[in-house]
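Morning!

This is the sequence you dropped in the shared folder:
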Amino acid sequence: MSSSTAPEDATGVEAPEDDDGIRDFRLRWTLTGSSGGSVEFELAGLVSLYNDNHSYLIDGRLRILGGHAYYREIGNPRMFVRRDGCEASGRQWGWDIVSQKRTCEKLCTMETYFQRIGYWAPADRSILLAIGAEQGWSKRTRFSRPVEVRMC
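The structure's back. Tokens below.
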């Protein structure tokens, strides 16, 4: 899923199912620079269904976990979060950006929070979330491996 030649790593965790329709998620992604420095990012939050399972709410946070000193080495990319959804048939909704694009320099001083509310159809089963990094004037973009949050 990445168009980068630099080594990178992504791990995602979804918590076990709850009876109240709320699932938490966590995704960690590491970008490595050309001189060996790396920056680790974390996407974490909750996905919940409400309004008799007709709507969903994503409430999340994107932050830098480690390697603050190396953000210039990886190119000070603009970081963001995107989401997709899956139906029971396997059909996907299509990727959509759900957070602001924020440079690593700004993420070093303050993490970014986001919320997304949307319609949840009876055929919908899960939401996919991934971290994106957009760099340079060409806006070359790399994406982490997505984490799947199963709701049904």
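Headline: Confidence is low (pLDDT under 50) at residues 1-7.

More detail when I'm at my desk.
O.
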